[in-house]
Amino acid sequence: MRTLAQPKKKAKEEEPSSLKGTLASVTFLGLFLVLTWLGVFLLFIERS
Questions:
Q1: Which of 4, 10, 13, 28 has the greatest count of CB atoms below 10 A from its CB?
Q2: By C-alpha distance, which of 9, 18, 38 is closest to 46?
Q3: 3-class secondary structure per residue, 5-20
Q4: Mean pLDDT (10-residue bins), the chain, 48 residues
Q5: C-alpha angle 22/28/30, rounded to 5°?
Q6: CA angle, 17 then 30 then 18, to 5°
Q7: Neighbours of 26 (CB within 10 A)
Q8: Which stretch of DSSP H or E encloses residue 2?
Q9: How far apart are CA 29 and CA 5, in angstroms?
């Protein structure tokens, strides 16, 4: 009978990766989107 191969366990546990760079990137992207939206909105209000 054929058995399914079991995945090999790693000898060393991986440490959780740091998400500081991700937080900074998402924060900057969010600020860019909000500032862009506000700029377009204020331009729309000014021209009305």
A1: 28
A2: 38
A3: CCCCCCCCCCCCCCCH
A4: 68 76 96 98 96
A5: 100
A6: 10
A7: 11
A8: none
A9: 44
